[in-house]
Amino acid sequence: MSFWINRPVFVLGGAGFGGAHLCEQLLERGARVWVLDKMLAPDSYLQFATLTERITFVPGDIRDAAELKLLFERFEFDTVFLVAAQPIVSISNALPLETAEVNIMGTYNVLEACRVSRKTKKLVFASSGAYYGATNTTEAIGEDAPPLPAANIYAPSKVAGDLAVRCYAKIYGLQTAVCRWMNTYGPGDTNFSRIVPATIRRLMHGERAVIDGTDGTNVLEFLHVRDMARGYIAAAENLDSPAVCGEAFNFGSGQPITLRDGVSQILRAWNAVTNEGVDEEPLITGPRVQSVKYMDIRKADERLNWRPEIPLDDGLRETVAWYHHNRSKLGL
């Protein structure tokens, strides 16, 4: 805890789902937190968790390089967490140039602001399991696996940012680390294209849970957003170590699961919270997809002393309960 007491921290993208949970944990540890985002939406977890009075919110965009440099010089941040991105796959395919501007050039803008800053030399970057592209392995994916061709524009945009962050450590001496995640869930996720909030919303509307585009036999993993936030923090706390600086780290549940079983667990969590007794078998509408994609997390354990703490069934029950409690505020 003492590591973060009064430490000035800048969370770029801190009004988003993962960024807001990161802010919450940094505040709990005593950090002074600034947040840059394009807007502070009414449905941001920052609002639901009543954190807005405890942060300094700066409206802005990581595509504005001049503004970033001014902010870095004015506030002399100790550590930067770059979690701002255009993360929605469907939007990346519809708006490839905007995705590149945010996820690639925005990342370079932040890196440059760090490089020329007198004070800020530590940066933790939110990469993605999408870095690995369309894998063809049946084993857990290690950090040294190469990026492969992907089915969307989002993936190569994250590859570019991921590589740049690590290069800035090697070339310019910045203390950086890259964090790769897949399928995070938890309270406050209002991106209803993701499987957990999408399924919960369907159930709230009295509809049956659906798996579309696959028969649900594809293997993946789910990671609670608080475990993700702990991973960012663990990386930041160890940036002085040569075993961490300039490195990429996978963070996952360590418990691969089929999509069908994952959705069934959401349904069981729903029944446990609501006592409604909905059918715990989702409707399958897609074809069989041969896909296994989960990550080897041993490096994070060995070098950062990080491991997931929240079991999927516990996390899903908490998440269902949160949506129920905030249903009217979310317009569900």
Explain the overall architecture:
- By secondary structure, the protein is an alpha/beta fold.
- The protein has 2 domains: 2-184 and 224-254 and 295-309, 3-Layer(aba) Sandwich (Rossmann fold), CATH 3.40.50.720; 195-218 and 255-291 and 313-330, UDP-galactose 4-epimerase, domain 1, CATH 3.90.25.10.
- Helix content is 41%, strand content 14%.
- The protein is built from 12 helices and 13 strands.
- The chain has helices spanning 17-28, 45-48, 65-75, 89-94, 96-116, 154-172, 195-204, 225-237, 259-274, 298-304, 312-325, 327-330, and strands spanning 8-12, 32-37, 56-59, 79-82, 122-126, 175-180, 184-185, 210-211, 219-220, 223-224, 247-250, 257-258, 283-284.
- The strands form 4 sheets. A 7-stranded parallel sheet has the order 3-2-1-4-5-6-11, sandwiched between helices. Strands 7-10 form a two-stranded parallel sheet. It has a two-stranded parallel ribbon with strand order 8-13.
- Helix 7 packs across helix 11 (312-325).
- It is globular and about 60 Å long.
- The two termini are 37 Å apart.
Enter the CATH topology name of the largest domain.
Rossmann fold
Q: Quick one: CATH class of the largest domain?
A: Alpha Beta
Profile the largest sheet: 7 strands, parallel
Strand order of the largest sheet: 3-2-1-4-5-6-11
Radius of gyration: 19 Å
Structural class of the helices, strands and pairings? alpha/beta
**What portion of residues is helical?**
40-55%
Q: CATH homologous superfamily name of the largest domain?
A: NAD(P)-binding Rossmann-like Domain
Number of domains: 2
Q: Give the mean pLDDT.
A: 96
End-to-end gap: 37 Å
| Beta strands, count | 13
- CATH architecture descriptor of the largest domain: 3-Layer(aba) Sandwich
Number of discrete helical segments: 12
